Amino acid sequence: MAYVYLLIAVISEVIATSALNASKGFTVWQPSVVTCIGYLIAIYFLALTMKSIPMGISYALWSGAGIVFISTVGWIVFKQHLDAAAMIGLAFILVGIFIINIFSNSTTV
Asked: How many structural domains comprise the chain?
């Protein structure tokens, strides 16, 4: 169940960050509200994740997956440019997530 909570935390964080971009510095109220609610949901489900997965690993997985997903959303939805260095860096983050999940005993729930 911890990974379901983590997935919800990541998805809500990506939605919140996308809305943060659309809020134009909290000057547009609708995406500003989505941002606040999204981050509250993300932190709540991250806290639930930490009941089963150690804090450092939970945060690393949450932030790493969030970085990759929000970069992808920025690239596709907001037409933001990702150069080769950014793509390589994101690939390293994904490799790190896979290494933690496949080889680390710290994630056993």
From this structure: 1
pTM here is 0.89
Range of the domain at 84: 2-107
Contact between residue 57 and residue 107 where contact means Cβ atoms under 8 Å apart: yes
Residue 54 φ/ψ region, left for φ over 0, alpha for ψ in the -120 to 50 degree band, beta for the rest: beta
Placement of tokens 């969030």 in the chain: 66
Query: For residue 24, what is the DSSP state?
Result: T
* 47 secondary structure, DSSP code: H
Two tokens, residue 43: 């932190």
> CA 103 to CA 82: how far, in whole Å?
29
- Tell me which amino acid residue 77 is: V
Q: What is the C-alpha to C-alpha distance for residues 31 and 104, in angstroms, rounded to an integer?
A: 38
Paired tokens of 75:
């690239």
Q: Is the dihedral of CA 52, 4, 70, 18 positive or negative?
A: negative
For residue 109, what pLDDT is reported? Answer: 60
